[in-house]
Fold this sequence. Notes:
Layout: H1 3-34, H2 44-53, H3 64-83, H4 88-107, H5 112-143, H6 149-153, H7 163-176, H8 204-227, H9 233-253, H10 259-284
Amino acid sequence: MSLASILTAVIAIIAAPVIGGLLTGIDRKVSARMQNRYGPPLLQPFYDFFKLLGKESITVNQTQMVYVLGHLFFAVASIVMLVLKSDLLMLIFILAFSGISLIIGAMSVRSPYSKIGAQREILQMMAYEPVLLLMVVGIYLTTKSFMIQSIFDHGTPLIYSLPLVFMAFLYVLTIKLRKSPFDFSTSHHGHQELIKGLTTEFSGIQLAIIELTHWYDLVLLLGMIALFFANPIWVGILIALGSFFLEMVIDNISARMTWKWMLKATWLIGIGAAATNIIWLYLKV
């Protein structure tokens, strides 16, 4: 790996949580205004993060921290692969390992809230992972490579060839970000009937690491949206920010649905749209 690649990776590792934290602050502020509230300061996510670092961690078992660190490590690895324009298929698999690490950590305790949250997280992964894999297949059929660099070398933005795949990815983005109507496993809002579900038994520094990982995931997912408009990249960034605002609107106007409805709707709409786009590409070639 060249010095430039190492420097790029380091900058991404440092900058991603800063951007993710700011976007989370904007999310909370805009959501509050949509609900006719003043809302917290823009930097409140950072205040909460450092406050969690200073709190005592009540560990139920000794393996919890291992799983939480695995959750963070795989998320960081995914961000590094994105900025270095590496293998997109491997990135999706590593991102899945990040989610699985958190699920195992939640399942390693006896709390019924944590276990039910982990089970719901598994259902959510069953819903969105096939769409992500179909997205990679569609990109491969378009660029003839799994490498992210090939997207930039392709010349024509992916959105022209993969409009339905893009719409399917936006659909599962709501699930991946755990926003209404798909906030089954855990939620940033107070209306979650499972208390905190997936993260019930995490506290202190462990909860801070989970929140930090969420910031990495947020930047990664928005970066993947930008890939559909990679030429020029600044257009992709603007579209990604617009998509994030759309997610905030959906989160605030939607009520939580059941997991059965989520699976049926995602497999029908998400997988159906992506598969249709891929079949069209295959026949076109």
